[in-house]
Every structure is written in C-alpha cells, then in structure tokens.
Design a protein that fits this description.
- It is a single chain.
- With 151 residues, this protein is of the alpha+beta class.
- It has one domain (2-146).
- It has helices at 2-18, 77-94, 98-101, 125-129; strands at residues 22-34, 38-50, 58-61, 64-67, 144-149.
- Strands 1, 2, 3, 4 and 5 form a five-stranded mixed beta sheet that branches.
- A hairpin with a 2-residue loop joins β3 (58-61) and β4.
- The two termini are 26 Å apart.
- The mean pLDDT is 84.
Amino acid sequence: MKAVNSLIAVGACLVALFYGMDIDLYSVETSLEVTPVAVAWHLDPVFIVWNETCPAAAMTFGNTIVASPWLKNSPKREWILHYEMNHVRQCRALGWMMWPATLVLDMDPFRGAHPVSPDYTNIEQSDDLMWLPPTWWRDRWHFFTIEVRLG
C-alpha cells in the first residue's frame, strides 16, 4: 500500500513538470528511526505546485500542495499553507487511508453540515479545527526511506 502513496506524491509532481507549472520546495523534514532490528532514515519534502487552474485556494495530494498563484502574495498565504500542511501530516499518518478516513474523522472543517469561518490572523486555528494525528503516532508513510536491517 505504500506504493499507492508514492504514486500519488510523485504523480502530482510529474504532472506539474509535464505541464510546465512552477514548483517550489516548501519544506523538508528528515528523521532517523532506530529499532532493535533496523535503522531507517526518512526524507519528507513538501512541494508547492502553483497552478492557474486550481479549483480552490489550495489542495493537497500526498506531499504535494497544489495552489493558485494568487496565494503567493496573499495575506491568507500562511494560514492556508499551514492548513494544507495539516493535510500532509494526515497523509503521513494514514497514507492512502486518509481519504476513506474522511467518512469517520473530521479531516476538513470546511466541509460538512457546519463549515467554519477562518480567522486568517490565527495561523494555528486549523490545528484545533481538524483531526491531526497525535504526537505519539508514528508516520506510516514517508516520501523516501533508506533502511538497513540488522541481523
């Protein structure tokens, strides 16, 4: 199932490159995981694809955020990108299961019976509005992993 996550993430970037869209590297996280049987190094970049035809301010596919170019200079930029990064965190925790999980978890506070009104001056507002994996939850999917098995 990790292959599905990889296809989503890499596919979004390949489509952007194929159509000549601007791509920015938004963030990069690395982590080292040591267990009694293996050592793994994880690389998790997040890309922003600036797309004129994006039907929303921004949308997230795996580790790729597709955003409308008007967002580059908007006062709403930081709030919206923080919100989309929360979707990246959801994907890292749940993998492709994040889409079926929307049936039981509040993954997107702007949908449903009681949509919220964002306070764009409070960047962390979306942390309280949507389901986020707890800090103890180990990421289930990474963009790139190098693992050495011991024994």
